[in-house]
Amino acid sequence: MTAASFMQKLKLSPRSLRSQLLARSLLILAALLLLIGALQYVIMRDFLYRNQAESMMSELRNLPHELFDGGGPFGGYQKPYPKEDHTGGGSNAADKDKTSSDNGMNGEYGGRRPDSPFLFMLDKSLAIIDVDGTFINVSADTGVTPPQLTGAEYDQIRSKSAPRNAVHYQVAVASDGTEQLLVFLTLNPGSGQIIQLGQTTKPLTDLLMRQLLIFAALSILALAGGLLLYLPILRRTLRPLNRMVETVERIDAGSLNERSPSGQGQLEIDRLADSFNGMLERLERSFQTEREAKEQMRRFIADASHELRTPLTSIHGFIEVLLRGAAERKEQLYMALNSMHGESTRIKKLVEDLLTLAKLDRAPQLHLSTARLDLLMAEMEPHMHMLAEQRLVRFEVKPNVQAVCDTDKIKQVILNLFHNAVQHTDSQNGEIEVSLYSADHHAVISIRDNGGGIAADHLLHVFDRFYRSDVSRTRKHGGAGLGLSISQSIIEAHGGTISVDSTVGTGSSFTFTLPTHDK
After folding, report:
1. Do 78 and 114 meet the contact criterion of CB atoms below 8 Å apart?
2. Quick one: which of 182, 365, 381, 462 has the fewest CB in 10 Å?
3. Are 510 and 500 in contact (CB under 8 A)?
4. 437 near 444, Cβ under 8 Å?
5. In the prediction, which pLDDT does 365 show?
6. Is-contact 467 481, C-beta < 8 A?
7. pLDDT tens-digit profile of 471-504?
8. Partners of 448 in the β-ladder
9. How far out from the chain centre does Cα 49 lie?
10. Alpha-carbon distance 461 to 509, whole Å?
11. Is beta strand 124-129 parallel, antiparallel or unpaired with respect to 135-137?
């Protein structure tokens, strides 16, 4: 089975989160096992070498005393001597050759004394290093060649003042290519001689390799077992994410009310679900706002077209009448011109209101300052009395009420609301009350009338553009339904609020608030 077919059988794709998590987890596990194996090799190698060195040092210290002289067990190495000449005349060449043959080693110190015991150590080498650097191979009979270190290394060994029980070992390669573990024992300090015992490291290396092979096999089994156990756990762990994917696939512009469950027991997935649900809510609000804006724009265009069509049709009709000869009759000419002037004035007012709304929608330019609203009311009082004509107007103004506002815009709002009250009250029995006071760090202005009131189903739309609850009455007074919309935009630009309270047959009350300088 190939790797691709195995991945396909497990339903894993190289680009999927599941396969990437699995691969990275197994890679980390393999790296950890490799690191553990390397540390195990180093620690175990040092452990085996140190134990073997301690055993070799014990063996070295228990060598037969007859090998050394000097009055102690390690007093000095017994150097071989040639046979003595009892005749006093020296020895002949044959005797010298026989002595060299009996010694069994080359050189002046190459053999052992005939009365010395034969030293036999399997797979071990033994050497003596004199203070003058002479290297004497004591284990020539064993067939193991001892490694020879440099003179500086032997001097460093002599200079060490380690405790008697401390074991220092060294690994070196002999001239025949065998790697040996060496331990050193310094003889009597006065002699400066070092005895070196070595043993081949092949048995220890073979043991280390067997241990490493066992560890490698167990590691492979652990990786395979981890793969089989990790797959179902990973599949279960990623189940909440899969549910979120299914939810996303079901969502389109017409089903933004879908929500992903946010309490699935995984902190990161829950946070992702909360963020995703928040995004859906924002999208849903955006789509709803866009739909409302489109619908409002559609109504706006229809209402604006309707409002402009009526005066333009009237003007067009008067022009046709004038062209048919009415211009020659002075009475008809002046009547037509007056009607055309009124319709053009109405168009001009509508266009100005539309431009005002466009500016307020884009970026309202307000010149804010702290103003005395009671003084502002006193300034506007004569104008409002003139607009009211025969209607009764009462003012209830608290002194020294201040607010942060654009006074020209606030005048426009007051006049719009007051003019609206005048339009909806009887010319003879109408009563209008204007009040000003402060409450909760806000300046409050209220305009109440005793007109016919507004039905409950119209209250929610009184601030909509071109909305008229009484079309015939609005037409009578020439309104286009933009005054309340402009007033709402101005108040909201100031950070205030505007509201209406009305009862059919009793009257209406429009109230708006402005932040004071203490806010």
Report:
1. no
2. 365
3. yes
4. yes
5. 76
6. yes
7. 433 444 445 567 888 888 889 888 899 999 998 8
8. 433, 509
9. 50
10. 15
11. antiparallel
